[in-house]
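Risk mitigation, structural track. In case the binding assays with copper (II) ion fail to produce interpretable data, a predicted complex structure has been prepared as a fallback.
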Amino acid sequence: MRTFTRAAVAAPALGLAALVAMAGPAAAAEGSTQADLAPSPVNNVDGSGHAMVEISGTTLSFTLAAQGLLQDAPHAAHIHFGADARNECPSESDNNAEALQGETNPDQHFTTVEGAPAYGPVVVSLTKTGDTSPDSTLAVDRFAVGAEFEYSRGDVQVSEDVASAILDGKAVVVVHGVDHDGDGTYSPGERGVSDLDPSLPGEATDPALCGVLNASQMGAMPQGGVETGAGSTSGIENAGLIGVGAIAVAGGGVLLARRRSTTDN
Ligand SMILES: [Cu+2]
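Fallback model:
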């Protein structure tokens, strides 16, 4: 009888250990995902790109490459995800014919907000330095500058939900910044000011490239990376935009607020 009693006591203890063990691997999810980036609808970008994202637990590392973008201009880039989003890149039918705040000629311009039902809010800002949270959504002084770029970062901390979404193929990489009127710089022009932040031209925040992160095979080498030859030698125009970084945080707050409202549902 004594052994029976021990067994009865031991069983629940084992059960608890098993639960803890099961919680462990979930938090330590590992994997590699990649996305081929293609032009967003409507915005007439003739560019492409590639993103690779690796997850180890709640630590993320990434490489982002793009080409064919507006030269000498900063290009905000993020991982977007929304539990209520379609978890895909937007299509032309997502273009809202009704003008958003600051938007003119809405049928000719596809804005970041219009893509939100497809890809959701920002969950990671793919900055080159500093903060990588949604607070840095429009921190244009810390994103890559130029028509063509490639950069990598590690040690980006994300939530377990975001890590899972990425590994499940539900996260979307979006690179922003287009030159609708072809004047060689971000200007309000016919597009107007940004619906995310009226202190920025809409051209600075409209989506240029998009791609869904999908699981890649173990050990697969990244492919389709963009050659970084004639790198941008700018910095002058960029310097002028550094000042809007602080204001940009307010715009990030808008996206953050959107995120909260969607995730709380
Ligand atoms: Cu974005």
